[in-house]
Every structure is written in C-alpha cells, then in structure tokens.
Amino acid sequence: MIAEPLTESVDRVLGLRLKQFQQATRLPVVFAGATRRHRAGVELRIGHVRGVLGPGLVDLQVNRGRGLGGSVLAAQQLRVVHDYASTTTITHDFDDVVVRQERLGSIFALPIVIGGRIRAVVYGAVRGSQRIGDVVLDQATTFAGSLRREIAATAEVDVEPDPMPHTRLALGELLRLSAETTDPARRDRLRELVAELRTLTGDEPAPSGDGRPLAPRETEVLHLVATGLSNREAAASLGLAEETVRAYLRSAMRKLGVGNRTAAVHVARSLGCL
After folding, report:
1. pLDDT tens digit sequence for 85-143
2. Taking Cα atoms as reference points, which of 113, 126, 140, 101 lies closest to residue 21?
3. Does a structural domain hold residue 159?
4. How many domains does the chain have?
5. φ, ψ for residue 99 (rounded to 5)?
6. Distance in angstroms (rounded) separating the CA atoms of residues 186 and 178
7. Between 20 and 30 A from 6 (CA), which of 212, 224, 250, 265?
8. What is the CATH number of the domain that holds 218?
C-alpha cells in the first residue's frame, strides 16, 4: 500500500459528514470509504457506515471491477442498481454481506473525484423492493460536490470550496416543490426564488459535454426529472405531450453523452447545467 497524505484527509471528512449525508438523502443505509493506491492499482476501503445490521461492511476492501464500487472505480461515474442480488452488470463478490447480511436492494455508488482521481466512493441504499429515485440521487450528487470541495480545501488541493452547500440543497427542495404544486401562481413564485438563489450561488447553466448548450426546455425537463417526476408527470407539469418530453430528454442525453435519465441528471449537475 502506498501512503498518501490526502487519503487521511478524505477519511476524516467522510467520518465527519456521513451523518449529514444520510440526513440530506433520508436513506436508511449509507456508507463510504477512501481509496488507496497499491501496486496492482486503486483499492477502496469502506471505513464509515450508518444504518447497517452487522459488521460485514466495515473495512471491506473493494478492488477495481469487483462489485458495484469496483465498477465505479473502473467507470469513474455514478452507478445505480435497483436489485443488487439479480443485476448482471456487476460481479457478486460481496453478496454475503450486501444481500444476505444487510438485505440491500436498490443501491447507488457515487465517486468523489479530486485532482482527476477518484478519492472516495459514497454509497446509499434501501432494503426491500423500494427503488432509489432521481430526487435522492440529485440530493446525493449535490452533497457529494460539497464533500469534494471540503476535502480539497482541507488538503489544500486547488479546488474552490463551496461557500453555500445548504443553499444548493434548498434549491433542490424548491425545484421539487415547484414541480409538485398545482397552483400556477405559486409555481411561478417558486421558480422566481430558484432563479434568485441561482444568482447568489452562481449556478448559471453551463455548456454541455460536447460544447452545445442545453436548450431551456431540455434543462427544465431535467430539473423535473431530478425531482423524481416520471415523463408523464413532467409532461403534465409543463403542459406538454409525453412524447415531447421524451424528445427533450433524448436530445439532452445525446448532448451530455449518456444513455439514461439518471446519468443525464448527474452529468448535467456536475457541469453546472442544473
């Protein structure tokens, strides 16, 4: 194992913030770990857990390509599985702990990237048949951005710290409320508040991954998707046909270079488009 000073900073911040991460996402189970370099590559060690049933996840070592976390180390992007036990897109090295001991079903693994490398992975999970929705994933991505900035600032890495992480969490909640309300006047006022808060945080829409900006309607559809609305619900909220909403989503996904709604929200958030 190769000693790295940043690993200690990452592990310390994860330990301090995991409870807040759980509160922000309202998930029953969350866990996280820092990565370490060794001769064979990068290894993830789960060092912090909340809501677990047993000790199996603590100090669990995850190598590149193994399990959900290992697939994130390989792909370097958010991954979600909605039935861990039956999914065929990951290996099942850790089923004894994840499935049989913890009884976890829907799980996401979110990388914390600093200086071009994955420095940590944060997980969220639920038990049973419940699925983790886009609202939770959006909240998790926002909080992960704050973690990244805090870790970088603590370790004196050249990444600007987030001055207002709670404001960004409030933005997500306002977007959810604006999507759910049936009062047009209230919806307009909520969207005005969102615009005002974005002015404070500086979160103006940014160009998409291929250099083409997302169209206003594409951004608006992604905002609603991020709050957990289905295509049909988003269409009703915007007064559009469901197929029109699908077309906007397909266009946004093509510009962002992704293949599904969840990944589109994650990439758009990371680019500052949401």
Report:
1. 999 889 999 999 999 999 999 999 999 888 778 899 999 999 988 888 877 887 888 88
2. 140
3. no
4. 2
5. -90, -55
6. 8
7. 265
8. 1.10.10.10
